[in-house]
Amino acid sequence: MSLLMNYNEPKWIEIAQLVFEEQFKRDPKLHIEMDDRRKKLMYDDVVYNISFLMTAVYFNDAQIFEGYAKWIYELLCNIMKDLDRDRIMRQMVDHYGILAEVFSQKATGVLKPEELALIQDFLSRAIKVTQKAVTEVPLSSSFIEGEFFDIRKAYLDALLTGQTKKAQQVIRQAKEQGVSMMQVYEEILTKVMYEIGHLWHSNYITVDREHYATSVTQSVLSSFYDEIFESPRKNKTLLSCAIGSELHELGIRMLSDIFEFQGWDTVYLGAALPLKAIMNAIEENKPDLVALSVTMPPYLSVCEQIVVEIKKKYPHVRIAVGGQAFRHTNQLWKKWPVDFYAETATELAKWAEKTI
Predict the structure, then answer these.
(1) How far is CA 194 from CA 139, 189, 200, 228, 334, in A?
(2) In 8, 192, 211, 345, which residue has its Cα 20 to 30 A from 163's Cα atom?
(3) What's the CATH class of domain 229-355?
(4) Tell me, what DSSP letter sits at residue 148?
(5) Which superfamily, per CATH, for 141-222?
(6) Which residues of the chain fall below pLDDT 70?
(7) Cα separations in angstroms, 120 against 14, 33, 99, 101, 131
């Protein structure tokens, strides 16, 4: 084999075309994800991938292709922002698998047996490198610091790779190891979901992946319900909701679970409720504490209006606010008639225990 092989020769064109066509046959979603421009670039990438693979084989140097596989994966993630890292990983893994099959079928008379063996080995390595790269994302210091990092990372990795059962298993094993419900909620699930939000804002994952992570975490929360509702009652009521058209309601749901676990009766309203509905719920349930959560800053003004109206009509009702949106303000809550601001559910629970 010559390092300076001509990739315009009929044999290499045939291999590139076979790989390209086979990938579309096996993965119908590609027809939706790839417009004509992307299809042209994808074919060019097939040829480029083959050239790097054959260079690695020529020098018998696996790192050449491993390094390239990781580089091309991150490049594609950066270029195709509409696709999730996990989806692009699966495209590339399929691609390397098809390359291996086509080379074994079509290059037998062109390459030496030892070269064919190296191709299979290098493609197998590329698959492993690409699969691992999905979860190799920059992590915030708040995610890294603190207890239970290994559990957090395992749960995050499962979410990033779409492994629902694995994610549930990580939390189940944590419970079996003696990690308390409060620790799972505050130190694992809360921190992981903040990290998911950070990765979305940084364009490392798509909004689809964020919604998937939320859905899985909601299912994980339900596994604690037997423990939560066994707690003795304290004859205190919490009413909680996420504000306006807010769809990020997971945090306030977790807050409600923690209060329920501590013996409160909770009225969890969810999200997207208008002011009138919230006021009606307060009138009907007569809560000791109302907790309002805002994740996206545009809904802060809606929250302010609700706070003012509650205090005007029910001055005796305590109000607490929190959520990601407040973290990016100059202590905005101090200008509102609220009784407490909490960054975490545990902070609010401790304050409520002492105050109410």
Answers:
(1) 11, 9, 10, 23, 24
(2) 345
(3) alpha beta
(4) T
(5) Methionine synthase domain (1.10.1240.10)
(6) 1-8, 244-247
(7) 19, 28, 9, 9, 17
Query: What local confidence, expressed as pLDDT, does residue 129 receive?
Result: 97
| Euclidean distance between CA atoms 204 and 139, whole angstroms | 11
Give me the residue spans of the domains in the chain: 10-133, 141-222, 229-355
Number of H helices, E strands in the chain: 17, 5
SS3 291: strand
**Whole-number Å distance between alpha carbons of 214 and 75:** 27
Whole-structure pTM value: 0.82
Report the pLDDT value the prediction gives residue 282, as an integer from 0 to 100.
97
Q: Strand pairing partners for 135?
A: none
Pick the CATH number of 10-133 from 3.40.50, 1.10.490, 1.20.120, 1.20.5: 1.10.490
* The predicted structure's pLDDT at residue 351: 96
Residue found by looking up tokens 């996420």 in the block: 242
Tell the residue number behind the tokens 């119908």, with chain if given: 28
Assigned token pair, 34: 């790839």
